[in-house]
Amino acid sequence: LHSYEDGINANSEAMYINYGDPKVVERLMTTVAAYDRIISVNAAGHLHFNTNWYSGTDSYREGPWEWGKYYSYLVLHPGLLMADFNNDPTGKKYVIGLSDGILAHGKQDASGNWSFPDEINWRTDATRGKLPAGETPMQLMWASWRWTGDDKYLRPILASVDQAGTTDSFSVG
Questions:
Q1: Distance CA 29, CA 160 (A)
Q2: How far is 4 from 38, CA to CA, in rounded Å?
Q3: pLDDT of the chain along its 173 residues, tens only?
Q4: Helix, strand and coil in the chain, % to nearest 5
Q5: How far is the C-alpha of 52 from the C-alpha of 49, rounded, in Å?
Q6: Inter-CA distances, 126 with 13, 48, 51, 81, Å
Q7: At residue 45, what are phi and psi to the nearest 5 degrees?
């Protein structure tokens, strides 16, 4: 979380303030280029965070640190911005790939309601918890939907809306 607050978020905000500034774009591209250190395909073929404990120089992928958590997705802010700014394929790859990784763990109950896990273990592909309504992964899903037009990415968003207690009924194929 603090890796995001103290640098990634500040650089992403700088992009909003001075959109396209070459120095800001360079910083965001550097962050996107480093995603492969903390995000990778697991044995099940899903793209997930392989750690939730990392810094600019170190990362740990064992035991309690190999669980991706809903706040892990904050670091995708530069990837979202770069994909929107210049159609960056690396940013899109990680945003869409992580969205697909979350969707792979979605569960639909007998009433047709979807739920998605709060945490995913990179090594075992195990899951735990329920993704809280309105959390960061929804931004990934929205971007994935905008870029692909595939309604499957709306499922977690609509599940989040339903979880928040709306009375409206939505369906996504």
A1: 31
A2: 13
A3: 466 777 889 999 999 999 999 999 999 999 999 999 999 999 999 999 999 888 777 888 888 899 999 889 999 999 999 999 999 999 999 999 999 999 999 999 999 889 999 999 999 999 999 988 888 899 999 999 999 999 999 999 998 887 666 544 445 55
A4: 55, 15, 35
A5: 7
A6: 34, 11, 14, 30
A7: 85, 15
